[in-house]
Request: fold
Amino acid sequence: MKLSIHVLVCALLSIAALTTSACIATDTIYKDEGDLCIGNEGSALSGRTSTVSANEPLRVVVAFGCGSSSCDKLEKANCTVTVDGDRIIIDSFARVAPVDLITTGCTSDCNIFSAQCTIPPLDEGEYTIVHGDETRTLTVPGDTFECNGDAELAF
Reply:
């Protein structure tokens, strides 16, 4: 669920007969949303998939999206994991703020905003990952956890 309050209030400024537009942006909040990637600690991706082993901690990357490196700053990001039987609940939060209140132009690069947390070692079996409104299946051991969206870039 996106609790994004991204309000732009624009004002026209006149300077010596030239009119320019400037916007004031507020923080964007991400709560329990974003792309996931899960894999063994210290492992690398193979294509879009990662390896998942039993009885080893697993790294979780939550990618909240991307913004301009010249205009957006990740103020706070975190994620936590709760294992409840065969359910793995991932809670995540991020706050992205404008670098300054008045901007007239931003670079069009993609600076990925992400948070990392750890799933404690799991026994072999099938688990349901819950992250916000989304659920996915995680099979332990397995080598085909497919990372989605920007999470593969941040893993």
Remarks:
- Residues 1-22 have pLDDT under 50 and may be disordered.
- The longest strand covers residues 72-84.
- The helical segments are 151-154.
